[in-house]
Amino acid sequence: MLWVLWLSLFSTSSQALTAEQVLKTAWQDETVLSQEQMRSTDSRNPLRNVEAFASVEKEDQKREYEVGLKFQFRSWPEWKLGAGAESQTRIVKEASLAWALHERYVHLVSLEITRQKKEALERILKLSESYRKAQGLSLRAGRSTSKSFLGAQADIYKLKRLESVVIQEHQTVVQKIRQWAPDWKDENLTSFDLLAVEDVLEAVSAQKVHERSLSARLLQAEYKDLGKELEILRARENQWIKGMDVSQSRKDEEVGYKVELSIQLPGLGSDDLSRQKQNELVLKRALKLKEATGSQDRLQSLRNQIQNLGSLYKMSRSGLVLSQKSRSADTLTELENRMSSEQAQLDLLSQQQEILLLYVEYLLENERLTEEPTRNFLSRTLKTVSL
């Protein structure tokens, strides 16, 4: 008996999976772990490079050697800007977890909505088969035309094609989630109380909106980094002291010391490749500024999209409720009404999926996904993600 109980518990634990457990895997995502391994490039060291050299010559029992160091200096802007040279890298590191969570949220939405779509399509197909049979009987009785019968068959074909697309989408999502949770054997999640559209609208209205979206912050950081790179390239052309060599030599009993400075005359250190690189940076910087300016209103745009689509969703659902109240004694008419109602339910699921995906993107851009304590923002009860 104990063995059977243990086997049952093991089987359940290896198959059952919650949305919170899927989200938890984000902390082990390769992109997140790779960011942790990155080393800082922020340095106040005025030297760009240091090389050691040594030479030994021997002739007629006479030995001569020389040892020394070569120092290459950074330009003044290159050294001055070192402390802020990794602003973009820092933001990317902070955002890597949010991107990993966003990917999992997108797949969780698709998994649950495609499951509900499959169920809706099964109901519609059953009704469509009944409708086609009723059309056949009506055709034999002379109460309908062959056009109506062939139309019913064509509708079934379209529905089956749509079903195959939804099934493929569901299987693709399942395979992706199994990469994050290899022990998961089922195709559905347990205890997944997916947000309704009304919940999304309420959350968007209540949430505080940041001044800049995550995309805008990244683009602005890229713009600044390109400016620093451009300033450094220009400064290298006007850098007077490029390097210094310090060496000691010994010949017989004589010991000598030598210090050499590498000096660049202003205006003579430029070359076509450097100028070409600078021109490329100027163009990239202008384009990056344009992107950053265009993304300033990204959060408000997403918010407006969600609210507008939410209003359309509520209108569609209200129309569905009214249509469900109509009944007919005629079999064909009643089947048409039921099919229309199920099709409307399917359309509502597509609308809900679009709104939820926009909401997840909104949370990403508003930098809410990584807030502590970590919660499942797709859960109606905001379940905690235990780390």
What are the salient characteristics of this protein?
387 residues, 62% helix, alpha+beta
Produce the secondary structure layout.
Elements: H1 2-15, H2 19-24, H3 30-36, E1 47-59, E2 62-73, H4 76-80, H5 87-140, H6 146-180, H7 197-206, H8 214-237, E3 241-251, E4 254-263, H9 272-294, H10 298-324, H11 331-365
Antiparallel strand pairs: 1-2, 2-3, 3-4
Helix pairs in contact: 3-5, 5-6, 5-8, 5-11, 7-10, 8-9, 10-11
Task: Please describe what this structure looks like.
- The protein is α+β, with helices and mostly antiparallel strands.
- The protein has eleven helices and four strands; from the N terminus they run αααββαααααββααα.
- The chain has a four-stranded antiparallel β-sheet with strand order 1-2-3-4, with no helix packed on it.
- Helix 3 packs antiparallel against helix 5 and helix 5 packs across helix 8.
- The longest helix has 54 residues.
- It is elongated and about 125 Å long.
- The chain starts with a helix and ends in a 22-residue tail after the last helix.
- The N terminus is likely disordered.
Question: How much helix is in the residues?
Answer: 55-70%
**Oligomeric assembly:** single chain
Q: What kind of sheet is the major sheet? A: 4 strands, antiparallel
Q: State the strand order across the main sheet.
A: 1-2-3-4
Helix count, per DSSP?
A: 11
